[in-house]
# Entry
Amino acid sequence: MDFTESSSVIAEDEQRSYGNMATHNMLPEPNSEIQVLQKLCELDNVIKTGFSHVLDMLSPQPTLEISPSDPPIAGSGSQIHSIVEEAKNSIEWEEVEQLKGQLKIAEDKIRKKTAKLNSMTENLEEAKTQIKKLKAKELKLRNVILQNSEDDVRSDEEIVQMFRGIRQKLLAIAHSRLINWQVNFFPCTPGLNPSVKNFHHRWQRSPLNNRRHILRAKLYSYIHYHILNRNLFGFGQVMNLGGGGNNTCDALESYSREMEKFLVQRGVPDEQLTNWRLSTMKCAQLVQCSSLSDCQASDLLMFTLKPLLHHNCSQEQLEQLRNQIRDVCEKAIEFRLAMRQSKDLYKCQMIGRGQIVSPDIPAEAVEVQGDGDAGNVIVGTFFGALLKHAKSRGEDEVVVLERAHVLVKSA
# Structure
């Protein structure tokens, strides 16, 4: 219904009202002006109400919902019905229903995503708790490993410094002023150790300028074969020449060496054998009860040197020499234990006589036997080589930390 049609309807209603009043004599006499004015005001209100609804219908509005609970609109019934129908026809109800359906689907998705998010949040919190427990366990295990392996790895610098210290101490003994390089043995003292007796024979057959070389090589051989080449554990010490070594600690030392030899013969894997050795040596540190210096090597050193000393040596000088020998043996034992307390395999190697000095041999010539130029044939070892094999870390190559000091024959 447009504006013209609405105006015509209102005018017809107005004429009809005047006709009815005239027919039924409902209006008062013309001279009753007050009543006439009242009726005109009522008609004016009806007209204004109709125009107001028409303007509302023509103005752009997004939606218009009529609820049964809304208050009635003033005006005639036909006008209200016409306005409501027009409003309903102007709304896209189908689109609204589609939007409602999409909204419901979106709400369902949101509920599902929210539930999934809550579940993932719970899983995340459980994972964080588990990670904290694992980190605490890892830290505990790390502390245990560090505590158990604090002596299992030693730096090469530490090992080399200990090795060089022993070499210097042994060299000082070989150059002692108490030694008489011109002394002879006629005949050899009976009852001597075969090794000492053999040295005396070589001494007798050697010229004066070679006796110092022979002594240095002999002193090192005692240290090498009786300490540096022994599988020490630290319970007790090697049997000394005086018949010692009958106490419990020395017995444990012997049993431990035999046990290690037995495990090697049985083919126990290197890693398990190393772990057993390290654990046994840790126990030995707690029960050590023997002197580190009173060992077979110290006895051999003293028996070898004593016949070579000047006859006018004082007791004080003899005791000083004995203390030097004990000190070098003690340092050698400490060094050997340090070598075996590491997972890396350290080894002192003696260079055999007759070998040729070459890059493949871990040796360097420091002295020449004879008056000619230095040759390349090795005739003696003053101090052995120090080698390292880090097998526990997967290294196959043997590293030479210190080359042996050897005596070569003149060309």
